[in-house]
Structure formats: structure tokens, C-alpha cells
Design a protein that fits this description.
Layout: H1 2-13, E1 21-31, E2 40-44, E3 49-51, H2 59-72, E4 76-81, E5 98-106, H3 115-124, E6 130-139, E7 150-152, H4 165-181, E8 185-190, E9 196-204, E10 209-213, H5 219-228, E11 232-236, H6 244-247, E12 252-254, E13 268-272, H7 277-288, E14 294-297, H8 301-313, H9 320-323, E15 326-327, H10 339-355
Parallel strand pairs: 10-11, 10-13, 11-12, 13-14, 14-15
Antiparallel strand pairs: 1-2, 1-5, 2-3, 4-5, 6-7, 6-9, 8-9
Helix pairs in contact: 1-3, 5-10
């Protein structure tokens, strides 16, 4: 999401009367690759680019491809194959051993539904999981669909552009599957009359939202790191106690009384870090009453266990389902000592939890780091 926001910012700041641009998007990955599907790169005709589609090995060629797409005013799909020992293939010798399809789309600034404008509309809307359908390739005669077009999926009716109910039903079934799996994936479809359409079904969740319930000095390095990751940061504390430096970093600051005004969803992590036992104890039931899927409690395990025991004695026992959302102590065991290292531990733990990973050493992992298509 951070990359998309950077692309939108650069796009909005362009002089569209004198400049042109193209958007490069990774729409298929087979095997290993530094970047995954959905990685994007905005390329301007003056050679400036924002974002990236690889670790740097493909960007040089991507600049040329983007300019060709701009000059021809036509989207192009380019395949980079780093799995073969071909000295003429871009990216060979880097050890990625993957096949990457990149779609280069020239941007029509007069089209309110161009690729970047569609992404912008997703960012501007409420925090929800967006499903985007990018048409990466078409074969046969199609009346309305165009290669490079992005469809914001809102239900089966969004697919009527294809003009084939049987094909649309097949597409809708696969899209629903990807939504249920919460995973993006490319997919090829063939109609009964032999026409084919290759789509990139993209599941685009909102950025992670971290709510820090506290005002002590360690809120500052945490806020800085979380913002660097592209996450949304909210602070809950009495305004008079909040460091002025934090005010320039956090997206919003709410008083404890204003806590119910925060938009808290399943993509939210709440961190109880007031460094005051009574305050954290009072805030835990508040946090559990929200839809946050991650609730972290700063401090040793014995402290958290004491809070749980006292709440049970007071008739506010934490249920088994609620306990599954609580991370106490929170963070990963990296030997963190200072506030900056603790912030790193917390960030890694939150990312692991939202990714469904255990945060262990990758050298111990026997399966691929990313799922393979």
C-alpha cells in the first residue's frame, strides 16, 4: 500500500500538460522472484520512476519498455524469464529462477478510469478489501474489454463488460475463490467460441492500522518505524502528555474518551503500552470490544496474567476466542534492548501475525517463502 500511495502522489504532482507516463505492474510470477504480483512502478517519459518491479535487475529494461508503451499508446505484456541459462535474457544470473509477467500501460490522463485513478479511488474509499481485475491479455474479437483495463469488482455485474454470461459466471466463481483465500492470482479463461482472456485477480487490503494506547517516549520510535512501513498510526493519550514530535508523525491522536471514534477493523493492531498497570487493565476490555484482530500487551507475561486474573475476579473474564487475539508479551524474540529495537520486534511480530506466519528463521523453512502459482 505504501508503494501505491507513493505512485499516486507522484502521479498527482506530474505536469500532465507536458509529461507522459506508464504504469508497470507485475501480474504473474512463476517460481522465485524478489517482488510478487501487484508490485508496481510508475515510469515518466523523462526517465523518473517511482516504485519497483524487482530488486533492481529489471528496472533498466522496464524504463525502455514503458517508453515504448507510451510512444505506441498501447499496453504491452512482457515476460522476463530468469529460470533459463540464456545470456541474452534480462535478469539472468541473479539467482531468482523465476518467470515474471509485467504489464506496461500508458496512462491516459483524460480517462478518469485509467489505472492510477482506479488505485486512487480505492485509497480514498473506506477501509475495505478491494478486488481489482486487470485484463492482461485478450485473444479473439472483443467489443468492450481492453487490454490493460482495470475493473473494480463489486459483484458479478462488474463483469458484464465481457458480454458472455457463461464466461462471466466462470470468472466470478474464480474471483470469489480468490476473495475467500485472500490471495491475488493470475487466471486464464476461454469462452465457448474460443476467445481467451487473461486476468490478474488482485486482492488489495487496506494498510495495517496500529493504535498505540500510551504516551511515553517509546511511542515515538514505534510511530516512526510503523510510518516508514506505510502503516497507519493512531495514538490514544491525553493530548497534553503527547510529545510534540509524535504529533508530526501520527495520522491521528485521540484522547481516551474519543477512543470509540477510531475506525478499528480486522486489519488493526491495538498496543496497550501506557506503562501504567491500572490504565492497561482498563484499556484491555475496550480493545477486546473492537474488531481488532491483534491486541498486544507490553510488559512481562506475569503482568498480563495478573490483569487477566483480576478481570476474571471482577466478572470480565477473557474468553478463549478473545485470548487468541491477545499477544502478551508482544513482539518477536530478537533480543531487543532499546526502544528502537523493541519497535522492530513489535513491527515484525505484527507483520507475522497478519501474514499467518510464526516469525521463525527463514533458513528453517522447508517450503517456498511465497506460495507458488
Amino acid at each position: 500500500m505504501k508503494e501505491i500511495k507513493a505512485i499516486i502522489k507522484a502521479y498527482d504532482e506530474m505536469d500532465k500538460a507536458t509529461q507522459q507516463a506508464a504504469l508497470a505492474t507485475v501480474v504473474r510470477v512463476e517460481g522465485s522472484s524478489y517482488r510478487r504480483t501487484g508490485a508496481r512502478m510508475l515510469v515518466m517519459d523523462n526517465g523518473t520512476w517511482i516504485g519497483g518491479i524487482s530488486g533492481g535487475c529489471l528496472e533498466g529494461d522496464a524504463l525502455k519498455r514503458a517508453r515504448l508503451a507510451i510512444n505506441s499508446s498501447r499496453p504491452t505484456l512482457i515476460t522476463y524469464d530468469t529460470s533459463e541459462d540464456d545470456p541474452h535474457q534480462i535478469g539472468v544470473g541473479l539467482g531468482c529462477n523465476g518467470i515474471i509477467d509485467v504489464l506496461f500501460c500508458p496512462l491516459d490522463f483524460n480517462n478518469p478510469q485509467n489505472q492510477v485513478e482506479v488505485l486512487k479511488s480505492c485509497i480514498q474509499e473506506s477501509r475495505e478489501i478491494h478486488t481489482l481485475i486487470t485484463i492482461t491479455s485478450l485473444n479473439g474479437k472483443w467489443q468492450l474489454p481492453k487490454t490493460g483495463q482495470i475493473i473494480k469488482y463489486k459483484g458479478s455485474g462488474s463483469l458484464s463488460i465481457f458480454g458472455d454470461r457463461i464466461l462471466e459466471a466462470e470468472m466470478d466463481k474464480q474471483i470469489q475463490h480468490q476473495i475467500a483465500e485472500k490471495k491475488s492470482a493470475p487466471y486464464s479463461f476461454e469462452s465457448q467460441n474460443g476467445r481467451t482472456a487473461d486476468l490478474f485477480i488482485e486482492i488489495l487490503p487496506p494498510e495495517i492500522h496500529v493504535v498505540l494506547m500510551g504516551h511515553q517516549y517509546d511511542v515515538y520510535p514505534m510511530s516512526r518505524l510503523f510510518k516508514e512501513l506505510g502503516w497507519r498510526v493512531s495514538i490514544v493519550a491525553e493530548l497534553i502528555k503527547v510529545n510534540s514530535l509524535i504529533k508530526g508523525i501520527a495520522d491521528e491522536i485521540k484522547t481516551p474518551a474519543e477512543f470509540p471514534e477510531l475506525i478499528i477493523d480486522e486489519h488493526t493492531a491495538i498496543i496497550l503500552m501506557s506503562h501504567d498497570y491500572k490504565t492497561d487493565k482498563k484499556n484491555l476490555p475496550k480493545a477486546l470490544s473492537t474488531n481488532a484482530s491483534y491486541i498486544g500487551m507490553l510488559g512481562p507475561r506475569v503482568r498480563s496474567e495478573r490483569i487477566w486474573a483480576e478481570l476474571e475476579q471482577e466478572g470480565q473474564a477473557v474468553t478463549g476466542d478473545e485470548m487468541a487475539r491477545i499477544f502478551a508479551p508482544l513482539g518477536l524474540d530478537i533480543g531487543a534492548v532499546n526502544p528502537e529495537e523493541i519497535a522492530l520486534s513489535l513491527a515484525a511480530g505484527i507483520r507475522a501475525a497478519f501474514s499467518g506466519r510464526d516469525g521463525s528463521f527463514l533458513r528453517e523453512r522447508r517450503s517456498p517463502i511465497h506460495s507458488r502459482n
